[in-house]
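Structure in, sequence out. Go:
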């Protein structure tokens, strides 16, 4: 049976940490068109008491709080495909060493690619365990238990075989005259593979916490933890410091794990090279404003020459007034044109570039608007009106609305292709919310409480929080068709940061809409 095509746009909204909210977007063109266009609109609804507006939170500060990471999607392969496919990184590493026709840089690239694909396979397994455990907690069944057992056995066996085969290859590579940098890179990839097993197998066991601690369930936990302990012993035997200490602060472990993840995944990352497209258009508009002002001043000068002699006082006064009017006309038109540019042009434009091939894969444009310049779509307001607080306070309690737009246009012909089709792009956006916290009240209060038995007065804890809604509209335009979906989440925050995220209304299924506009 053929595999269902991947959605053209997937999103994941989550809290990254106390100060950062993360939007993960997966752009996956189908290949049906030579260009695919994506537009993501984010509406942030802030209580007026947070004192956020164009003056206190200018565009430059907003963009400074945005951290953006763009990379290729990790190629999807199962552990069985990693072991059996002739185009898998393992097979290419082995063939490259035998033939000697592959450069050392290519060997390192394929080793890193192996670690990325391996991580993706184990992550899908761990996420699947989490979903299965949630379903079994609601109502356990023999079929679900059998699937969980089968998946766990297959993944533990497959992971062990991948590691063994890679390490055999790595030992063989040591017999060749490779540069020390290449040898070190291979050792780091090996360590990251080992840590990946530990990370996701520990997560799987933790997700099984609610399952019974007997029978097949305890055996599953034991098999997974045996692999974790095996890899821990391997790192200890090779004098690697990436071993968790139950009593220490594990600073070295965290540093090495974070470094190795960046080192191995950097082959997927793309660069965004800024282009001054809006600045160029603004300069044209400002030159037009200067031309209009100069036309007025010249017309006044010609009229004054005809009406008065150049040596007269009247001629002198008219020329002074004409210059004053010219200056005001120029500045006034600059402001008008600047507002027009802000309304119709994006603030920032960047080219998405593959650092290996130096090819531009597409463009990324961003725009941010405040307050009155933001027109909230009716369908977005309809989502919020399901809350009585929002419905009743419209027009009575003020709030600030920020709109952040991001448009990505991908040249499908330049994207890499795999056996599964066009390779997509992952776009991770992290918004630092620290500026939102500055004017918040103290996070905790003491509330007076009366005991009903003896009417004694005591105090109980009262937590002060603020609610910030984020509404999203996702547009995809490809092959003359457009899909639109909506989503609404709420951040519960206090002065210390984000406390939790509430998924008010999950993503709605895509629906047809009018042709997408580049910016509103």
């Amino acid at each position: 049976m053929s595999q269902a095509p991947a959605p053209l746009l997937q999103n994941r909204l989550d809290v990254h940490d106390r100060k950062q909210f993360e939007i993960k977007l997966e752009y996956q063109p189908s290949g049906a068109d030579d260009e695919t266009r994506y537009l993501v609109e984010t509406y942030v609804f802030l209580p007026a008491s947070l004192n956020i507006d164009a003056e206190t939170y200018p565009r430059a500060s907003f963009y400074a709080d945005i951290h953006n990471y763009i990379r290729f999607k990790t190629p999807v392969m199962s552990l069985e495909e990693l072991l059996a496919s002739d185009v898998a990184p393992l097979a290419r590493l082995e063939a490259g060493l035998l033939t000697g026709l592959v450069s050392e840089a290519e060997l390192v690239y394929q080793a890193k690619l192996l670690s990325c694909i391996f991580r993706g396979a184990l992550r899908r397994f761990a996420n699947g365990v989490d979903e299965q455990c949630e379903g079994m907690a609601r109502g356990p069944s023999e079929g679900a238990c059998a699937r969980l057992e089968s998946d766990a056995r297959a993944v533990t066996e497959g992971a062990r075989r991948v590691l063994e085969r890679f390490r055999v290859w790595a030992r063989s590579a040591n017999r060749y005259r490779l540069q020390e940098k290449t040898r070190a890179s291979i050792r780091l990839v090996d360590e990251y593979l080992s840590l990946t097993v530990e990370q996701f197998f520990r997560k799987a066991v933790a997700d099984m916490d609610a399952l019974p601690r007997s029978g097949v369930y305890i055996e599953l936990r034991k098999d997974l933890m045996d692999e974790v302990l095996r890899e821990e012993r391997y790192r200890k035997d090779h004098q690697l410091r990436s071993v968790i200490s139950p009593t220490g602060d594990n600073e070295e472990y965290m540093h090495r794990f974070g470094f190795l993840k960046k080192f191995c995944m950097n082959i997927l990352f793309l660069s965004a090279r800024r282009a001054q497209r809006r600045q160029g258009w603004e300069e044209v508009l400002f030159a037009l404003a200067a031309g209009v002002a100069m036309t007025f001043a010249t017309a006044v000068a010609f009229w004054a020459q005809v009406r008065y002699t150049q040596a007269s006082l009247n001629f002198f006064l008219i020329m002074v007034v004409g210059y004053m009017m010219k200056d005001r006309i120029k500045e006034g038109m600059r402001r008008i044109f600047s507002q027009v540019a802000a309304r119709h042009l994006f603030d920032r434009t960047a080219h998405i570039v593959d650092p290996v091939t130096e090819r531009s894969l597409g463009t990324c444009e961003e725009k941010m608007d405040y307050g009155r310049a933001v027109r909230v779509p009716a369908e977005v307001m309809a989502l919020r009106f399901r809350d009585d607080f929002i419905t009743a306070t419209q027009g009575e309690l003020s709030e600030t609305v920020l709109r952040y737009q991001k448009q990505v246009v991908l040249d499908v012909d330049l994207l890499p292709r795999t056996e599964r089709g066009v390779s997509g792009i992952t776009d991770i956006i992290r918004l630092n919310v620290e500026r939102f916290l500055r004017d918040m009240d103290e996070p905790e209060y003491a509330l007076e409480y009366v005991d009903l038995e003896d009417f004694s007065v005591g105090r109980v804890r009262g937590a002060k929080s603020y609610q910030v809604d984020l509404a999203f509209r996702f547009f995809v335009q490809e092959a003359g068709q457009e899909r639109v979906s909506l989503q609404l989440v709420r951040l519960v925050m206090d002065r210390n940061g984000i406390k939790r995220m509430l998924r008010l209304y999950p993503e709605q299924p895509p629906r047809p809409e009018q042709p997408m506009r580049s910016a509103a």
